[in-house]
Amino acid sequence: MSAVPCSGGYPVESPSQSRSSWMYLPPELRLMIMGKVAHQKFPGWESCATINREWQDVIEKENYKKLKLDVSDLDDLDVMVPHHKRHLVKHIFFQIDLPRDQSACCARWNPPPSNTSKIVSQAIMKLFTALSTWDKGNLTLELNVNSLSNSEHWFKPLYFSNDRTEGDDGRKVNDRNHGWVNGQQTRPAPEEAVRRMFRPIKLDKSFEREPLPKVICATKFVIRRQLRRCLSPAGISAMLEALPLLEHMSYEPWALHETASQDRRRDHVAALRHAMLQKLSKTVTSLVVFQDSRKFYKVLQQRQQNGGPKPPTINSVAIGDALGDIFARKSLGLKHLAVSFMVDAKDVLRHCKPAYTWPQLKTVALTSQLLREDASLNPDSQGRIEDLLCRAAALAKRMPELDTFVLWNGAKGDACAFIYRVKGSKASITWRGTWDLEMSSKVVEAWNSVALTRSWREIEIYQERIESDVNCVGDAIHHLKLPCRVVEPASLWQMRREGNLVRNGTK
């Protein structure tokens, strides 16, 4: 009988061989071998579970740890995961598959299928009903919606259902009919095809007559950027209301299309406000919001049409006010807050009232458009950045547990971050970026006073220059080495690859 291979050079004996040699191995070595075999799933690894209970426990933990489910799996979920095994499940990735578009090619425009909302709402209801019988736990619930049509024509290299966080998947798409040669885009996709990929899914009325059942096993809720079909905030509200024991939410919506009307934007913000302030559980202590945008990716950029209709005028001040108030108020009960690109840092900080205190807030990360250009080239910009950093410092003094405060920005060719850190008995401020920012005495004194509120020594100051190429916002995040999470690791992996698909423009 041959042994089951295992990296590290140690063979694992099959059940028909003597078990005595296995039991003589040190416990830590046995655990390492079992973990590698279970994780890598070599041929025949299931038979190892018959050696003893030790094998069975390790393999079951690895096998149940993360489940990828679709709607059809829910019918047999109780068989797949018996009641006494539910505690082993730590992550459920639930994907709702939409039917293909009934067009010869996704370049042709046709009305969205009228049953999309019904398909998604029924699938979500089925999922929440299935999980409503599970006991209180520590489960991550991740939701995705996808149609195979997305990756069959113009968007083959993009990611719609992927969990990778490192390495290279080796894909180099060749499809001249859809503008791809050796993994690089040579011809942009039609605007109609791009808009179809981002078509929103309205769930506004779906759960009013029949609310979702409560799910108490989930403590983390994740919607990653690969769900490009934006779910309406009203639908998000319904799900949040049914997740009363959430502790962490990671939400990565895409920005509304440039042509979205003022009324639609106002309604969208109002619904988001209701979701965050009224439906997001008070038990949530960590909130990470990353708004992705077509403007970050040349492969998705809108082509200019001469003489075409102009985008509607947007009241950005009113929208910034509404969003800033949402996150300023929500931050009061959090330990960790990161909001990227959905709202500017200045709008969040401006809505922090004098009476606000943050007794448990440890990390804050916000983006600011003030950090989008080399301040040395514009004296007015230098002054506005200085005011922003001093305003942040004044608020930080009311955060007694604060150990990380980040203000950052990123785009093609540009990355910068102001980072306040507390490590042990040391406090520091760091400017890291593709351009330099002079730390004025006013800024240094402001943050030094923050450090001294926690009895630290005088603050240390660092300047670090990024010399690497920054081809997209994903590259910016990578090179900035931010000390707190602003986007899911798998999303960052996708962003960097999608952002580097087009480097020298399209023909």
Automatic annotation (TrEMBL):
Residues 280-488 form the DUF6546 domain. InterPro entries: DUF6546. It comes from the Eukaryota. It holds the Pfam family DUF6546. Residues 166-178 have a biased composition (Basic and acidic residues). Residues 1-20, 166-189 are annotated as: Disordered. This is DUF6546 domain-containing protein. The lineage of its organism: Eukaryota, Fungi, Dikarya, Ascomycota, Pezizomycotina.
